[in-house]
Design brief:
- The structure is a single chain.
- This protein is α+β, with helices and mostly antiparallel strands.
- It is built from one helix and nine strands.
- A hairpin with a 3-residue loop joins β2 and β3.
Length: 160
């Protein structure tokens, strides 16, 4: 009788281990299905033209054709690499008039919206080219010190 109980315990432990491993694998897959907002990824470039390697607070963008204009929406989030927190603190587009900013409950921007007017039938803005849009990412460390990183952006189509 003791042999059968011992066998059942070993069998139960093996099935429990397999079940736990399967559960952990499925839990890891959930984050892979969470899509970043926007049709376009946004690459950040330093003023020298070199792509920035730091984490980007810009998670995506959308371009919406509105006939005689194109509406650009840039989605942003706070990023934290302990003990440094960063967020998109400024976006400079053309004359800076007409930029609408959506804010979260902590006073951090979640989206910047701007409408580019078409000029003489030319597309107002398109992806895969360096855009004359300047960003400023502000990094704040635990001691309250601020550092800024600035540059230009490029939209990259996620569907290609």
């Amino acid at each position: 009788m003791a042999g059968k109980e011992h066998f059942m315990k070993k069998l139960f432990k093996k099935f429990a281990a397999i079940g736990m491993a399967a559960m952990m694998i499925m839990a890891m897959g959930v984050t892979a299905f969470a899509a970043a907002p926007g049709t376009y990824a946004v690459n950040l470039y330093a003023p020298s033209g070199i792509q920035m390697t730091h984490m980007s607070p810009i998670v995506g963008a959308d371009l919406e054709d509105q006939g005689d204009s194109v509406k650009l929406t840039i989605y942003t989030q706070e990023i934290t690499v302990d003990p440094i927190t960063g967020y998109l603190s400024a976006l400079s587009i053309e004359n800076n008039e007409g930029i609408e900013v959506e804010w979260d409950e902590n006073g951090q921007p979640t989206a910047f919206e701007y409408e580019f007017a078409d000029v003489a039938g030319e597309p107002a803005i398109s992806a895969d080219e360096m855009l004359d849009i300047t960003y400023t990412v502000e990094f704040v460390n635990a001691g309250g010190m601020h550092q800024q990183s600035t540059g230009s952006i490029m939209l990259v189509d996620r569907t290609e």
